[in-house]
Amino acid sequence: MNKGKKIPVKLVAVLSFIAILAGLYLYLSSVDGNRSASKSSLAVKELAAPKGGTFIEVIEKDKPDINKEFPLGITEPAIQDAIHAMSHQKVKAEDKWGFLPLTQDRVKRLLEVVKDGEETYKHADTYLTILESWNNQEFSSVDKQHNDIWRLQSGTIGKATGILSAAEEKAYIEKHYDIQK
User: Fold this and answer.
1) What is the maximum alpha-carbon separation in the chain?
2) Across the strands, what pairs with 162?
3) In a 3-state reduction of DSSP, which class is residue 109?
4) What residue intervals traverse the membrane (predicted)?
């Protein structure tokens, strides 16, 4: 190694920026890959909502171990990531990063996790409000709920602008998974 030769500061800055982007890409890819069901393991049903209208229910054929997916004491950013990724199947947004099927099993488990650690999560009230409404198949505010989490994550791209129709939601799910009939 040549002593005395210094690497230009601009080059270090550019290389650092590229490394951060690559790391972020790999992280987001692994989050999406690790937090999703296998390609052909979902079934979709359109059901009547308790307060009128319809909602889409996703059923995983090869259910993951939900307790391992969301262990007690999971980090607050992981809770936010899960809620955010699940909301994507129901909201209109120009950009969406990450998709996690919104299932009743996941909603119920996240409710347990947040209630168990309620004192330790800074935004537990927000998570509980969202998860309780989803547990009751109430999705009329899912776009606002998405944006609440999006803001907590300092979102700048991908703000929800509305709620998908049942047909749009099915199409979004089919884009990510092969749906079993």
Assistant:
1) 74
2) 92
3) helix
4) 7-28
